[in-house]
Structure formats: C-alpha cells, structure tokens
Amino acid sequence: MKMMNQRLRRPARRKIISQFFVLWLAAATVIAGNRVAVGTKVPIPNGYKSWSLFLVNNPQWVVAESNEKIKKLYNQFQAFGGAIGRDNVAVWFWSQDTLEDSFQYRAVDVVRSAEFCERLHLSPGNGPYILVTTEYPGSALLNDPASFLPTKLNNYYVVSLNNKGSDEIMQVLTRIADKITADRPPDLRSNADDYWRSWRLTFEAIRDFLSSRQITVSIKTPVSEVQVR
Q: Quick check: bond before 185 cis, omega within 30?
C-alpha cells in the first residue's frame, strides 16, 4: 500500500491530472488536454500561461444555414487547442448540455462571447474573434457579470475573422499555433515587451495574407497598440 501511494504521488501522475480532467457539473463541459469547451455554469480554468478564447458573437454564425460553418470552426478549435501546448489553453463556450450535429449552431453561447466583445469594444459584424491573452480573463460565469475580465487586460491580441470561411480561418489558426509552439524558451516571459513585439513581427510577416482576406489583428500592451491588416 505504501509503495502504491508513493507511485500515486509521482510527478507523472500530476502531469496526467493537469492535462486530462473532467468537471461534472449541471452544464456540459468537455476538457481534453488544452481544449476546453465550457458550459454555462463552468468557469474558465486558471493556471495557464495563455488563454485563447473563441468568441462567436456574429449573428450570421448562429443561424441554421451556418451550422456546417460552426461544426468546422469547432473542429479547428479542437485542432488548435491540441497544437498550442499544455501550458496554453483554448476555450470555447457552449450553452447546452447536448450537442446534435444538425443543431450545433443553437448550442453556441453567444451571450458570453458578446459579453467579452462588449467589454473589449468588438463589433458583431467583424466576428468571430480570437482573443489571446497571458492574463486570466476571469471565470466568465453568467450569474456573475464581474467575472468577465475582472481586471483590465494589459497584454493581449485579438484576431478579427470578419466572417471568413473555414479554410481561411484554419490557415490563421495554424499560423498562431505554429508561433505559440515555436516560442517557448523559459527565459521569454509572457508579459515581456519582447514577447509581444515578436507577435507583432509574426503578423506583419503575413500582412499580405491577412490583407487579402480582410483579417485584422490588434495587439495591445501597456506601451503600444498596433493593428496589422
């Protein structure tokens, strides 16, 4: 018994627990590695180096005609979350416990996405958005409005996808995932000016790609605010 307890305390076990866990609550929650789909009563998890929030607040995405687009975007979210590494988490908001393939558009939690967008002054017409920040964005519980961005974000960037198709969005997500996985040196602090400058240079390097697709990236730090389009 003593030997078994020692095994259970090993770092490998802690690593497994940190990567794969399930919250059994009234609303649906799916957590697989770094891909977190949270229901209405489930908080955004804390303890990561960065949070990537998928904010679907554009009405065109939550009608029956857009169901296939939502399914593809969610699949891309899953792939993105798996690529960015265990220290970074991707968050998707659902409003229903049960997902049916033909009605996924009904389960998108537009309310919570809209709450974030309103606080960041992001208009519905330019969505969906991807918000990436190195600061905890709050638990985002509907019964607690103060849990949405409880403190003002100092370091973040927002990708305005401007209602683009799934293939174009996938290309953007691939670029972002490549950047996150490439820049993980331990001496590069996530709140350092060099970190955010490197992101600006990355997006400037694909400016033509962004411009041709009318995709805008806004990067905000305490010392600068830059738009790449």
A: no
Task: Identify any residues that bridge with 94 across adjacent strands, giving them in sequence order.
Answer: 108
Q: What is the pLDDT of residues 182-227, one digit of tens each?
A: 655 444 455 567 777 777 877 887 788 788 878 888 888 776 778 8
Residue found by looking up tokens 């789909």 in the block = 37
CA distances from 129 to 17, 37, 43, 50, 144 (A): 30, 16, 20, 16, 23
